[in-house]
Amino acid sequence: MDIVNAYEQLGSYRAAAQLCGTTHKTVRRLIERRSAGEEVMQYRPRPKATDPYLALIEAKVRSTDGRISAKRLLPQAQAAGYTGSARSFRRAVAEVKALHRKERRVYRPWVCVPGEHLVFDWGQEGEVHIFCAVLAFSRYRFVRFATNERRETTLALLAECL
């Protein structure tokens, strides 16, 4: 968002700075320049030294499934003409690898059907045995106490639970 517009909407240096991702001093300086009649310059992000080599980085990260390190990739980029610093290159590789990890992982939530899954377990407190069951869909909890954990007791409690 434009800093001047953010200040006009919010009316506060700090609020505009937080919205635009800068400091309140920068906002104040730009607003004072504008009120003095000076033209407020719009800053465009400069291209990074690694921008021409992002295709190479992305291809190598994709072909190695994100396992290649920046240390091993740097000589290949230098052979292709990269003249920037190793630190800038490591940053670029880290960004590409983070994006690759994010795109690679597919989140598939477990969807259960009503009445299809029941999870139960036994616990023990002293001589009392605790039977706990939970229906997966509704998260309905069923708790009973018993004197043993035998098959007959378990089946009877499962029948009572259902």
State the gist of this model.
With 162 residues, the protein is an alpha+beta fold. It contains 7 helices and 3 strands, in the order ααααααβββα.
Walk me through what this model shows:
With 162 residues, this protein is of the alpha+beta class. The protein folds into 3 domains: 3-35, no CATH class; 51-104; 118-161, no CATH class. It is built from 7 helices and 3 strands; from the N terminus they run H-H-H-H-H-H-E-E-E-H. Helix 1 packs across helix 2, helix 2 (13-20) packs across helix 3 (24-35) and helix 4 (54-63) packs across helix 6 (86-104). The longest helix has 19 residues, at 86-104. The model has no long low-confidence stretch (mean pLDDT 90).
Ranges where pLDDT stays below 50 over 5 or more residues in a row are none
Give the overall pLDDT as a whole number.
Answer: 90
What is the makeup of the main sheet?
3 strands, antiparallel
SSE string, helices as H and strands as E = HHHHHHEEEH
What percent of residues adopt helix (DSSP H or I)?
40-55%
Q: If you compute it from the alpha carbons, what radius of gyration comes out, rounded to the nearest whole angstrom? A: 31 Å
User: In percent, how much strand structure appears in the residues?
Assistant: 5-15%
N- to C-terminal separation?
57 Å
